[in-house]
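Our working data are protein records whose layout never changes between entries. Getting from the letters to the tokens is the skill we practise here. To make this concrete, we reproduce a full record directly below:
***
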Amino acid sequence: MGRFDPIAISAGLGVGLLIFFAGLIYWGNRFKALRRTTIIFWGLVGGAVLIGAAVAINHSEGFAPLLAAGLAVIAIAGLFVLAGATPAALGLLADISEAFPHDRGAIMGLYSVFLALGQIIGALIGGFAADDFGIDGLLVATLVLLGVALVPLAQLRRWEHQVGMNPQTGHAPGLEARSGR
């Protein structure tokens, strides 16, 4: 834990929660200017930055306090950017389900199933990684899973412009201004 006491870790988690909520609000208000897949991509990059900083903080014993504080700022910035992936993914799901109003319940049900499967698989991978390599294993496994998330994101980006297509205009609502970003 880089010689952090439990109170400092709890305070850090509390600050992290506030930063995450601030990121949710900030990125949630960027839907008109940026494509949802762009926000998700930058969220994944932010997650990678957060993980890199967390690995460095985990090995910060003996670091100068200013360097450790700099790593904390980098981790906070990564968390803020990572928070954007959540509202963007939910917004993309809402766009998809908008095109199928009679199947919206089924789509949301499938979302819940896949979310639960992702949590179970992620917990298993993280558990095995943590058993073998401690917190570093958990962090590296998280970094690998962030990289894996880029594959379906690339597929989503290819057809995102078709989501919620308006039959009269042939465009998705609000996407005309976002094309190419």
Q: What stands out?
A: Residues 6-162 form one domain. The helical segments are 6-28, 36-58, 65-82, 85-98, 104-159.
